[in-house]
Write a structure and sequence with these properties.
The complex is a heterodimer of chains A (348) and B (786). Chain A is of the alpha+beta class. Chain A folds into two domains: 16-66, Uridine Diphospho-n-acetylenolpyruvylglucosamine Reductase, domain 2; 73-125 and 169-336, CO dehydrogenase flavoprotein, C-terminal domain (Enolase-like, domain 1), CATH 3.30.390.50. Helix content of chain A is 29%, strand content 19%. In chain A, a hairpin with a 4-residue loop joins strand 10 and strand 11. In chain B, helix 11 runs parallel beside helix 19 and helix 15 runs parallel beside helix 16 (535-562). The chains are: A alpha+beta (348), B alpha+beta (786). At the A-B interface, helix 12 of A face strand 1, helix 4, helix 9, strand 27 and strand 29 of B.
């Protein structure tokens, strides 16, 4: 028997309990005692629409609305520490972040519109749910058989397959933080632990985060060596704003000397699969080379071959692969020849 | 009277302050005491038989006040077209079969949305799912197993699911092709788009104790709505009053009757309480009407010198599950083909085909953008094959002033030749075409190619369709100010401002001295509505006549009072004065009092009415195109300058130049607003807007995923008005269409510009990056470059 989705005339929020703890510690305490039925609400910009559409049905919301984020700071060992509760506006506008890791400010600035960025938090952006054309609608009367992610077992984009979810993870800040080698500080009842952001995403569209039901991201640490790397971020969208990416590419390179030798590289691609993907092999290929246009083109091709794209939001696999290649090539070229104007803009 | 005072001036919109400060009231803003909320249970299947509907559980729910289903509305039919050939075919609520996803089945009125949702979920409908067809080629194939409706009885072609057919011809098509030096055959296809009006579909009905059904509806013409409500509800028109509310955009999508409007009325009658329906955006995207996807198959024969000697066309429209406006668009398409160019021998067939998609509505241009995209791309293809300048080809065949059209209409002061010449000189077109440097050589990182293209279009202004005419009343107040009573509806186009400018000009008043009372079926006269591109012309002339009536009365009274002949008087500053001796004057206030005193209480009221083509009995035949269509055609030429990113397939419309013959602009700024709006609408059509459908279901029913242009996508838009008419106080005027024809040529211009930039010919819309990239790759492969 298929689960049926309820018809909804207007998008009402379902009923839920609501708590506003006074500290992050209290919040994870409440998460723990809820036994997995509660969910953290920070900005709510992803959560509330999903609740209205019925893709998430928590019994309780633990709202962090009473908490204020700590200001971004440099730790004793030189890491840049960002409170997960910082809003994307905070991140986009912070002079320290713009100075140390401008690509993160850039990525934060490219999320949604100003109102969204004023509420949405960095932690929330990293924990946002995956997206799919079929999943992100209210299902008033079409697609009423629940798909796998909604509690049923069908998959509309892949009708031949059961019990799979290939919805796409579309955070803009995640690929940037991967390129920056960030560490996530995860808070639970048993205290804090550090998790490499590379290990935070499962690659499963059904449950994309490796985050326990009583855990939350408390802070993000960007190591000092990353702050010295050259970075680049590009978000390709059909309209150039106010929407999720077709493809995003975040690159951090250590470029040394007049020969532009690459000492270290991290390349991450977002919005093309169930998690952000890192092009480990292509990174290896670039390290040790003197960078030039030919290398950029070659590496871009390798990145596009390495990261596997899932068709999403009407874009075919082949097109997304092409976009990954073009935007990687253009990003690398812009980084190698930094004085030239950015090349990913189509304006004349 | 010499120089114009208000007309021809870019005066500020009179609805501007209300709208920009949020004071403007739209239907959804209205709350009435005891008001219920209504909702509709819709079909989850594209094609199914309804075996049973059980509303018992929902009826027992506390707060549910009334429920109606197909058994309550059986036999009540409505349709966009209601003629003997095309009788109404849509049910208010489904009777036995649903034919598209989202079709209306049950309507509920409840005390609040929570109860309403619960009630809708408690209704049990049992279906037998039937096979469905969505693709137009499959649906019309003679072997198609799915019959959505029986074929139209008068159409004998061996196709399935024919909703309607338009055919016409003149000359001798066979002979024409024999004379041709070149015959060119092309096929173009346009995709499914939707209107994207911001204000949702909304209706409030209040059947009060006064025996009148009061309604507030987001509409494009209250008199058409009233007519259709009256015929479906079985009430006299006079018992229905549709009140004024601002309308937040429509673009063609709010013309005919919608189920929710009837249901609001029926549920209010049943409960005796006001009932409000507000459609959700998902409902609008999935279950309401979209535009018209159209296939254009064109065969053209030309002489070496470019003269078109024969043209044969077949247009196929995917109409959706009911006729909707599908049977109209195949008629209109013929007109959009024949307007700009002379064709001696011509044959046209248009088919409208049923599929299990939601029915269609007009969408700004109603077929013109699809048709002109095809024809103007085709013209460029022909020019290239003839090795002829595309401008010369167009000038060779373009209509000239005074030409009679095949349907008996006349183009009168047609400015097409002038438009083409001005567009070419304004954009330096001939020099710049194919003259952009290959930018790859300049910067290896910027593989952007530039191109320029041009398109031509024409559009009718006003036509004969219910209610066929507009009337207006202007009445004077004691202080000399006036009230204008007009049925014209303000839906963003600026009708109220334009009509007040006309009144002001005729009476030499400032806009502040004119109060407009509009779009209320009980207190204002009939009006054609804002949907056949004729409001400024038809209603404008009615208003001019009404104001003229007041002017004549004022002059007559003043002449008596001043003891002077009428022709020696002039109006100025709410007074009548002797032109040769301005000291001799009488104020409007005194004129008003004198009129009451001396003309047996005449309070000075002017009436006016206007109808296009006074001698023509009906609108032209949808089947044969016979009959006249309009007495004023607008012509336009648009030039697009694009930049194509050959690595990502992204295209940017850098600049749009519109040169158009709009007759005479009553308010140039509003004309400019229409142009800019249409350019950005066409830009969405060209590059991003696409209703993604699969098996009758809509995949992107949200603003996020149905991508309309954002402010930074909007192109630089420049225009030149080619003025072919004039405005004179006391004389009828001929303004030409400016509200929807300009979405068309620019679409073709963009396609031609893409070709100019890259050599890639676009045969289908949209020109999405993915499609462009695929096309460019194919071109490279064919050139042996890869």
């Amino acid at each position: 028997m298929q689960a049926k989705i309820q018809t909804s005339q207007i998008l009402n929020l379902p009923e839920f309990d609501y708590q506003t703890p006074a500290s992050k510690k209290d919040a994870v305490g409440l998460l723990f005692s809820s036994g997995g039925d509660a969910i953290i609400s920070a900005g709510g910009t992803d959560l509330i629409p999903n609740m209205k559409n019925g893709t998430i049905k928590p019994k309780a919301l633990i709202s962090l609305s009473r908490l204020s984020p700590e200001k971004e700071s440099i730790t004793a060992d030189g890491a840049l520490r960002l409170d997960a509760l910082s809003t994307l506006s905070d991140i986009a506008e912070s002079p320290l972040i713009k100075l140390k890791v401008p690509t993160l400010a850039n990525a934060a600035f490219h999320v949604g519109g100003q109102q969204i960025r004023n509420r949405a938090t960095l932690g929330g952006n990293l924990c946002q749910d995956t997206r799919c054309l079929y999943l992100n609608q209210s299902h008033g009367f079409q697609f009423v058989d629940a798909c796998y992610k909604r509690g049923g077992d069908c998959c509309y984009p892949y009708p031949a397959e059961k019990r799979v979810c290939r919805s796409v993870f579309m955070s803009d800040t995640a690929p940037v933080l991967i390129s920056l080698g960030a560490q996530l500080v995860i808070l639970s009842n048993s205290g804090e632990k550090g998790v490499d952001i590379n290990d935070f995403y499962t690659g499963d569209g059904l449950k994309p985060l490796k985050l326990g039901s009583a855990e939350m991201i408390s802070a993000i640490l960007i190591p000092p060596e990353s702050q010295k790397m050259q970075c680049h971020f590009v978000k390709a969208t059909p309209r150039g704003g106010l929407e999720f990416a077709m493809v995003s590419v975040a690159i951090a390179l250590k470029i040394d000397g007049p020969d532009k030798k690459c000492g270290k590289a991290r390349i991450a691609v977002g919005s093309i699969n169930t998690s952000p993907l890192r092009a480990f092999k292509a990174e290896q290929e670039i390290v040790g080379h003197n960078l030039n246009e030919a290398i950029a083109a070659e590496v871009a091709r390798k990145v596009a071959d390495e990261v596997k794209a899932l068709p999403h939001h009407g874009y075919s696999k082949g097109y997304l692969k092409q976009l990954v290649e073009v935007h990687t090539k253009r990003s690398l070229t812009a980084m190698i020849y930094p004085k030239e104007p950015l090349t990913h803009e189509t304006s004349d | 009277m010499g120089e114009l005072k208000l007309v021809g001036k870019s005066l500020l919109r009179i609805d501007g302050p209300d709208k920009t400060t949020g004071k403007a009231k739209y239907t959804a803003d209205r709350k009435l005491p005891g008001m219920l909320v209504g909702g509709i249970l819709r079909s989850p299947h594209p094609h199914a038989k309804i075996l049973n509907i059980n509303t018992e559980k929902a009826e027992k729910l506390l707060g549910v006040k009334a429920i109606i289903s197909g058994s309550d509305t059986r036999g009540v039919k409505h349709g966009f077209v209601e003629t003997p050939r095309y009788p109404p075919d849509q049910n208010i609520l489904a009777d036995d079969v649903v034919r598209h996803v989202g079709e209306e089945i049950v309507a509920v009125a409840a005390t609040n949305y929570k109860v309403l949702n619960d009630a809708l979920n408690l209704i049990e409908v049992t279906y037998e799912v039937l096979p469905a067809v969505f693709d137009v080629a499959e649906a019309m194939h003679p072997d198609c197993k799915v019959q959505i409706h029986p074929n139209h009885p008068k159409v004998k072609d061996d196709f399935c699911n024919i909703a309607g057919k338009t055919e016409t011809q003149w000359g001798d098509i066979e002979e024409g092709f024999k004379q041709a030096d070149l015959i060119c055959v092309d096929r173009f296809e346009s995709h499914l788009r939707t209107h994207g009006y911001l204000e949702p579909q909304t209706a409030i009905a209040d059947y009060g104790g006064d025996g009148t059904l009061h309604m507030w509806i987001s509409s494009m013409g209250h008199f058409v709505k009233r007519k259709k409500l009256a015929s479906t509800l079985g009430m006299p028109e006079g018992s229905i009053q549709i009140h004024k509310a601002y309308v937040g955009g429509a673009f063609g999508g709010k013309i005919d009757l919608f189920s929710h409007e009837y249901c609001a009325a029926a549920l209010s009658i049943k409960t005796g309480r006001p009932v409000k329906f507000v459609a959700t955006r998902e409902e609008i995207f999935t279950a309401y009407r979209h535009g018209q996807p159209l296939i254009s198959e064109i065969k053209t024969g030309v002489k070496k010198d470019g003269t078109i000697v024969a043209q044969q066309l077949r247009m196929i429209n995917n109409a959706g599950a009911y006729k909707g406006s599908g049977v109209v668009v195949i008629f209109l398409a013929w007109g959009f083909v024949m307007l700009p160019y002379r064709v001696k021998n011509f044959k046209y067939e248009g088919y409208s085909i049923f599929t299990n998609n939601p029915p269609r509505a007009p969408l700004r241009g109603h077929g013109a953008p699809q048709v002109r995209f095809a024809l103007e791309s085709h013209m460029d293809i022909i020019a290239e094959k003839l090795k002829m300048d595309p401008i010369a080809l167009r000038l060779k065949n373009a209509r000239i002033p005074g030409e009679e059209l095949p349907n008996g209409d006349n183009v009168h002061n047609c400015g097409l030749q002038a438009c083409i010449q001005k567009a070419v000189s304004k954009t330096d077109f001939s020099k710049r075409r194919h003259c952009f440097p290959n930018t790859e050589k300049i910067s290896a990182h910027r593989p952007i190619k530039h191109g320029i293209g041009l398109g031509v279009s024409s559009y009718f202004g006003g036509s004969l369709i219910y209610p066929n005419s507009s009337s207006a009343i202007v009445k004077m107040n004691d202080d000399g100010s006036v009230d204008l009573l007009t049925g014209a509806i303000e839906l963003g186009q600026g009708s109220e401002t334009v009509l007040c400018q006309i009144v002001g000009e005729e009476l030499q008043l400032e806009l502040e001295d004119i109060r407009i009372i509009s779009s209320d079926t009980a207190t204002t006269p009939q009006d054609i509505g804002a949907w056949i591109s004729g409001m400024t012309y038809v209603t404008g002339n009615a208003v001019r006549e009404a104001a003229g009536g007041v002017r004549e009365k004022i002059l007559q009274v003043a002449a008596e009072q001043l003891n002077e002949r009428v022709e020696n008087l002039k109006l100025e500053n709410k007074s009548v004065l002797v032109a040769a001796d301005p000291a001799q004057r009488i104020s409007y206030r005194d004129v008003f009092n004198a009129s009451i005193a001396n003309s047996r209480g005449d309070t000075i009221i002017g009436k006016g009415h206007w109808r296009t083509m006074r001698d023509e009995p009906f609108h032209p035949s949808l089947a044969t195109t016979k009959g006249r269509w309009s007495e004023n055609y607008a012509f336009s030429v648009q030039v697009a300058e694009v930049a194509v990113d050959t690595e990502t397939g992204e295209i940017k419309l850098l600049k749009a130049t519109t040169v158009h013959d709009c007759g005479f602009p009553i308010n140039p700024q509003l004309v400019k607003g229409q142009i800019d709006g249409q350019v950005s609408l066409a830009l969405g059509h060209a590059f991003m807007e696409d209703v993604m459908m699969k098996n009758g279901y809509t995949l992107n029913p949200t603003w996020l995923d149905y991508r309309m242009p954002l402010i930074h996508n909007v192109a630089d838009s420049k225009e030149v008005d080619v003025i072919t008419e004039s405005y004179q106080v006391g004389r009828s005027f001929r303004t030409k269409e400016v509200g929807e024809g300009l979405v068309s040529a620019i679409l073709a211009a963009i396609a031609n510009a893409i070709y100019d930039a890259t050599g890639l010919r676009m045969y289908t819309t949209p020109f999405s990056p993915e499609k462009v990239l695929k096309g460019l790759k194919l071109l490279d492969e064919n050139k042996g470059l890869r």
